[in-house]
């Protein structure tokens, strides 16, 4: 087993999901985003634990991600959050995935494909109420919803939207923007219902709205990042205790003592100012520990922080321990995780102008995910 591992603390995931379920109350379903391999945590193991906590459905971005869950035996609804191309329609139908639809052409294509296979497809009409990414316009929604509901092989399972700034609760303009998005969705639903079209589920709430906008919970919430232990941004009051789920750790594989005036790593961007010990860690940007963390991040070894010095390389990086640190060969170094006093993914993100989502998603495929039920952290 490689020294560098992403330890996934499933008990922390369960804790976070329970907290999110309490926010929405017992009657509202939860569809957990497990796209991008569950934000880097491993979708099958995450989905298994989530299902045990009562998560009713899963959100993926690609057909392959959906098929992976089906092959692992999941029979729950799997919603396909991103739009697909025509060539994927067959697999969507074959594996019983529930695609978001936003135009007539894809509605008809899915209906034809289902007809050919003698199957039924459950679709979710995606309305763009202000995210500006995908979705039909609110003006088109009733027509498209009516059309989808009238297609013999389709079932209009859901009507949904996605928020652009639901996690920005401290800025009045942003709060009003989300309110407008909610109102637009409600208006579309009213029009549809006026025409006798009644979707089974209405859903909109990502983590930000699950936390701050109870009126947007509708029938089902769609959180992601908060289940993995992080807030979507700094724009909301942190009223729920979350526990980071992923811990990226490695071990010291080389130690040396060097005099003052020694340059380290590519570009010699760090020069020692005193006699000191340098530890080498077998983790680098190919593992998702980004080069922009060079001379910025700290790692935690035996509960103490030490600076990452010199450039982070593809597979290795260095840490300045100072002259007298009690660090030994093969000691564990935590790059980020839930432990008290350890850096977390939010801190790492802050150092590189990024967000925790990206930090966990980018942990490389070659880093083994190791699952534990041991609770960890604060
Ligand atoms: C359509 C959709 N719904 C829900 C989510 C979950 O968002 P978050 O991780 O911010 O809770 C995402 C994530 O990007 C998404 O694309």
Helices and strands in order:
Layout: E1 5-9, H1 10-24, E2 29-33, H2 35-39, H3 43-52, E3 57-60, H4 63-71, E4 78-80, H5 89-94, E5 98-101, H6 104-117, E6 121-126, H7 138-150, E7 154-160, H8 172-194, E8 201-205, H9 207-212, E9 220-221, E10 246-251, E11 254-258, E12 263-264, E13 270-271, E14 276-281, E15 298-301, E16 304-309, E17 317-322, E18 332-336, H10 345-351, H11 356-361, E19 369-372
Parallel strand pairs: 1-19, 2-3, 2-9, 3-4, 4-5, 5-6, 6-7, 7-8, 8-9
Antiparallel strand pairs: 1-10, 10-18, 11-14, 12-13, 14-17, 15-16, 15-18, 16-17
Helix pairs in contact: 7-8
Pyridoxal-5'-phosphate (PLP) binds at residues 33, 59, 81, 162, 206-207, 222-225, 232.
- What ligands can be seen in this structure? pyridoxal-5'-phosphate
Beta-strand percentage range: 15-25%
| Strand order, sheet with most strands | 11-14-17-16-15-18-10-1-19
What share of residues is helical? 25-40%
Overall body shape: elongated
Distance between the termini: 27 Å
CATH topology of the largest domain: TIM Barrel
Give the CATH level 1 class of the largest domain.
Alpha Beta
Structure class: alpha/beta
